[in-house]
Amino acid sequence: MSSFLVKVAAIRNEAEGIASYELVSLDDHPLPHFEAGAHIDVFLPGLPAKQYSLCSRPGRTDRYRIAVLKEPDSRGGSRHMHEKLSTGDTLTIGTPKNHFSLVPGARRSLLLAGGIGVTPLLAMAETLTAQGAEFEMHYCARSRHRMAFAEELSEHRFRGRVHLHLDDGPDDQKLALPVLLAGYSDGDHVYICGPTGFLDWARETARQAGWPEEAVHTEYFSGTVEQLETDTGFEIEIQETGQVVQVEKGQTALTALLEAGIDVPNSCTEGICGMCMTQVMDGTPDHRDQFLTTSEREGNDIFMPCCSRAKTHRLLISNDY
Question: Which residues fall within 8 angstroms of residue 193, CB to CB, at 6 or more apart?
């Protein structure tokens, strides 16, 4: 089952502008299993699918929990959730997917959360605590009243492992990221989730501290489909059929492919989820996603048609990837 109905069992105000939603099965059957880092698609009427990380305890199949930040520039998803959804309503959601999973057997795990980016890392903290694994979590927010799940993360089971950092707090409690990331050892892994600025800062700090790319794991909550004045149209050829599709300037490759009747699985349309990933057989893509690693980009054999373009006149892709 790729999508199914659930009922909204509870809605709670977790912080300023952040509400959590508990979702349960309509027929009391267990919900699909998920692991820490997973997200679900939420399908709202007339709106693109929106991805929300599961922040309930992994292993629980009686209910899911997600948290939603009401964004002023929302395309409608967060506004709908905050203003129109009520306890008892039904939602269509997708089965859990995970592109941000914990590495089994890590020597040490560092969890870095910025704002609403706490959601997948809360589930990771639950899993690592249950495993008795070595980890630290550092959660940054502008102020305490904008910090979701602060009381939950201050509970005894997390004591000494979870650290809260406030922008408006004293200097001595602010996150000293270069110090935290100093001294990388083989087997260490860092997981980062939050606003783009926070992610870029943490990734660059890790790079400067000598962390290898494969030990740095990130999840973006939003992306921007970059369009440049120098962009031109290009062609995409489908290896399996020989069909050639013209992508116009100002048009995404995903839109062109879908309008040509080519089925491309997709979800975020912003280059952050990886669902539309296709294989490049010939030609050079112009990568503009936030999903691929640097080494994957340098390989030039993967293409995200929702946001990326081509440096060559034509890309030959396989739609069976």
Answer: 53, 100, 112, 113, 114, 117, 118, 119, 120, 121, 199, 218, 219, 221
Q: Is 159 exposed, middle or buried (0-12, 13-18, 19+ CB in 10 A)?
A: exposed
Give the fold, CATH level 3, of 3-94.
Elongation Factor Tu (Ef-tu); domain 3 (2.40.30)
Residue type, 134: E
- Span 9-61, pLDDT tens digits: 999 999 999 999 999 999 989 999 999 999 999 999 888 888 899 999 999 99
CA atoms in the 13 A half-sphere facing the CB of 57:
9
Domain assignments of the chain as residue spans, ordered by start: 3-94, 108-220, 234-318
Q: What is the C-alpha to C-alpha distance for residues 165 and 182, in angstroms, rounded to an integer?
A: 19
Mark the ranges of the chain whose per-residue pLDDT is less than 50.
Answer: none
Shortest CA distance to 66 belongs to which of 143, 130, 115, 123? 123
What are the start-end ranges of the H helices in the chain? 77-84, 118-131, 150-153, 177-180, 196-208, 253-259, 294-299
pLDDT tens digit string along 151-166? 999 999 999 999 999 9
The DSSP call for residue 59 is: T
- The whole-model pTM stands at 0.79
Q: What is the token pair recorded at 76?
A: 């409608």
Q: What's the rounded Cα separation, in Å, for the pair 184 and 145?
A: 33
CATH for 234-318, options being 3.40.50.150, 3.40.50.2300, 3.10.20.30, 3.50.50.100: 3.10.20.30
